[in-house]
From TrEMBL:
Protein name per the record: Serine--tRNA ligase
Organism: Candidatus Nealsonbacteria bacterium CG_4_8_14_3_um_filter_37_36
Upper lineage: Bacteria, Candidatus Nealsoniibacteriota
GO terms of molecular function: nucleotide binding; serine-tRNA ligase activity
Pfam families: Seryl_tRNA_N
Gene3D superfamilies xrefs: Serine-tRNA synthetase, tRNA binding domain
Residue ranges of coiled coil: 37-101
Length: 140
């Protein structure tokens, strides 16, 4: 599996490699999903940070009114966190599915093709054995 950093830095090279192996993968969609996934993850981390800060504020709050205000804020953060977690799970599923479709890139001297029928014989070693048509079947 290719590293996502490599794919981000070399999208055209990856597209060309997929084309040469005759594998249809939407690299642009992969990069779009990756960007959304990273943004969602960052937003989720920000919410977790705000929740930690709110927990400290609750401990330092002087009266019940302040605590209730902070608790309401935390409930709203929890709702957003749940929504983002669900979104992140969906994005990661699509991301992983697309990543698994991307083949390793072939070297420049590899013949273009999708399977072994497109390969080229470079050299053969030794003589090929010659068998009678039914010699393997008629053994006792």
């Amino acid at each position: 599996m290719l590293d996502i950093k490599f794919i981000r830095q070399n999208p055209n090279k990856v597209k060309e490699g997929c084309k040469n192996k005759r594998v249809e993968v939407d690299i642009d969609r992969l990069l779009e999903v990756d960007k959304k996934r990273r943004e969602t993850l960052q937003a989720l981390e920000d919410i977790r940070s705000q929740k930690n800060k709110a927990n400290k504020e609750i401990q330092e709050a002087k009266n019940k009114k302040e605590k209730d205000k902070i608790i309401l804020k935390m409930r709203e953060l929890d709702k957003n966190s749940d929504r983002l977690t669900k979104t992140l799970k969906e994005l990661e599923g699509e991301f992983n599915n697309l990543m698994l479709q991307i083949p390793n890139l072939p070297l420049a001297d590899v013949p273009i093709g999708g399977d072994e029928r497109d390969n080229v014989v470079l050299r053969e070693w030794g003589e090929k054995p010659k068998f009678a048509e039914h010699s393997l079947i008629s053994r006792p």
